[in-house]
Amino acid sequence: MLGKSIRPNRSTSLIGEYASLLGDAVLRNRARMAEHSARIEAELANRVKSEFIANMSHELRTPLNTIIGFSKILAEHDKRRIPQNEIVEYAQLINDSAGHLLSVINDILDISKIQSGKFTIDTRETGLEEILRYCIASFQKLADDVGVELIDGVINAIPPVRGDPGKLRQIFANIISNAIKFTPKGGHVVVSALSTTDGGVVVEVKDTGVGMTEEELGVALTPFGQVDGSKTRWREGTGLGLPIARSLIDLHGGRLDIKSAKGKGTIVSIMLPSRHLVSAARGRDLVLGEDFGGADALR
């Protein structure tokens, strides 16, 4: 009887020991996987950081060099007479470079405020047709200069939305300029808009540009991410246009949808809810990170 009573205890002890060893092995494996994952994330973060610093250095120094160089020439006008037409040309170059520099700085400040949750928008009933036509007209010369056809496909019966006119212009300007920037000569960009059955609006920007893979699209939507981060990339930029646009769309209770195929082009759709839905959901300005949790609560 004594021998029989010992075996179950020993079996229980062995099972407990095996369970303990198995548990330790599982924990060690999880720790290794977590460490590997953290290392990959750290390497990716360092790479993005390095590319951002290199790209930002270029984006800031190029206009600054232009401003310094041509302003120096103008400052020495008394030493070397400059023809009037050249003075006007140099002044225009300085103005353009200063505008680009200000745009880069504003983008950095905007994404910083958005990420800190301190970005606010001033909402009111706004007509989208006027904003879209303004943005199309603003980029018509750029499109002509690079040989891209910019097509106005906006209809006249778009219902108004509740939003911040300045930020809505920023959204569409970022997306239209991106479409032109990444469309080769001879291609086209079409901007269209239509109303939805619930009183909302869908704005679509379709291009015949270089397109993106799913992985590249993920990079493009990451702040400071560059699909081509090398110094030989064929288009300049800070990598903030799409992330800022998406965040501003979220603040308006809308949604950004992007469909893209490598070598075939990209379709960017901006869905904005009915002004009545937004008014019912919020009686005050939208603030990132507060109350309704951004766009998800209004979808």
Summarize the structure.
With 299 residues, this protein is α+β, with helices and mostly antiparallel strands. It is built from 8 helices and 7 strands.
What features would you describe in this structure?
With 299 residues, the chain is α+β, with helices and mostly antiparallel strands. Helices cover 56% and strands 14% of the residues. It has helices at 2-75, 84-116, 128-138, 140-145, 165-181, 214-220, 241-251, 275-281, and strands spanning 124-126, 149-154, 161-163, 188-195, 201-207, 255-261, 265-272. Helix 1 runs antiparallel to helix 2, helix 2 (84-116) packs across helix 7 and helix 5 (165-181) runs antiparallel to helix 7. The N and C termini lie far apart (71 Å).
Spatial strand sequence of the major β-sheet? 2-4-5-7-6
Hey, roughly how much beta strand do the residues contain? 5-15%
Largest sheet: 5 strands, mixed
How many strand units? 7
Secondary structure class reads alpha+beta
The percentage helix is 55-70%
Which H/E pattern describes the elements? HHEHHEEHEEHHEEH
Poorly predicted ranges: 1-6, 229-234, 280-299
Averaging pLDDT over every residue, what do you get? 79
Query: What is the 3D shape?
Result: extended
Q: How large is the radius of gyration?
A: 27 Å
N-to-C CA distance: 71 Å
By DSSP (H or I, 4+ residues per run), the number of helices equals: 8
Topology:
Elements: H1 2-75, H2 84-116, E1 124-126, H3 128-138, H4 140-145, E2 149-154, E3 161-163, H5 165-181, E4 188-195, E5 201-207, H6 214-220, H7 241-251, E6 255-261, E7 265-272, H8 275-281
Parallel strand pairs: 2-4
Antiparallel strand pairs: 1-3, 4-5, 5-7, 6-7
